[in-house]
């Protein structure tokens, strides 16, 4: 079976304007479109189509990152909404890894952006299939985990176990 090709990645954020501003100002993303709000005050479309509370309201921004990656940002207002992002160790925990030619320089630049927190420091993988890869995790002003990574082995080549 031929693997699927990813079209976009979607993240729910607490404040759509703040998230769009961060991705465009700090990471160079371009806004492809914005849409919404969407809701169905008297029906069940939201729960049927999206699996969320029927009285939810949704706003969307689609962004373009480098390499053709599309990032779809959602902001929901829902009566039953949990307002805490999962940690990496939680089920549903996630991070978005972005290629960086100079991880150290980019980590320093992003650390100066208001609300960004660099976790630990830039590290280098010491052994295994991605030995030599440089990486660091950080959190955005709205709590989303990002990783800056400079892999030694391009993903198109694969890595030997």
UniProtKB/TrEMBL annotation:
One family name in Pfam for this protein: Glyoxalase_4
Keywords for this protein: Metal-binding
Please list the residue ranges annotated as the VOC domain. 5-151
Which InterPro entries does its entry note? Glyas_Bleomycin-R_OHBP_Dase (IPR029068), MMCE/EMCE_epimerase (IPR051785), VOC_core (IPR037523)
Keyword Metal-binding carried by entry: yes
**Can you supply a Gene Ontology BP term from the record?**
L-methylmalonyl-CoA metabolic process
Specify the superkingdom: Bacteria
Molecular function (GO) terms listed?
metal ion binding; methylmalonyl-CoA epimerase activity
Q: Which SUPFAM superfamilies match?
A: Glyoxalase/Bleomycin resistance protein/Dihydroxybiphenyl dioxygenase
PANTHER family linked: BLR8189 PROTEIN, METHYLMALONYL-COA EPIMERASE
Q: What is this protein called?
A: Glyoxylase I family protein
Q: Which organism is it from?
A: Kitasatospora viridis
């Amino acid at each position: 079976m031929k693997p699927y090709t990813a079209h976009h990645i979607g993240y729910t954020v607490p404040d759509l304007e703040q998230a769009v501003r961060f991705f465009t100002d700090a990471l160079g993303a371009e806004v492809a479109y914005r849409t919404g709000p969407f809701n169905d005050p008297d029906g069940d479309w939201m729960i049927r189509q999206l699996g969320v509370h029927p009285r939810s309201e949704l706003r969307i921004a689609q962004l373009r990152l480098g390499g053709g990656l599309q990032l779809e940002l959602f902001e929901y207002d829902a009566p039953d909404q949990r307002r805490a992002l999962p940690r990496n160790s939680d089920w549903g925990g996630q991070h978005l890894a972005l290629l960086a030619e100079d991880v150290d320089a980019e980590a320093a630049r992003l650390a100066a952006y208001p609300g960004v927190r660099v976790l630990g420091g830039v590290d280098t993988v010491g052994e295994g299939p991605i030995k030599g890869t440089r990486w660091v995790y950080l959190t955005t002003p709205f709590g989303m985990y990002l990783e800056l990574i400079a892999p030694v082995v391009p993903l198109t080549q694969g890595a030997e176990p």
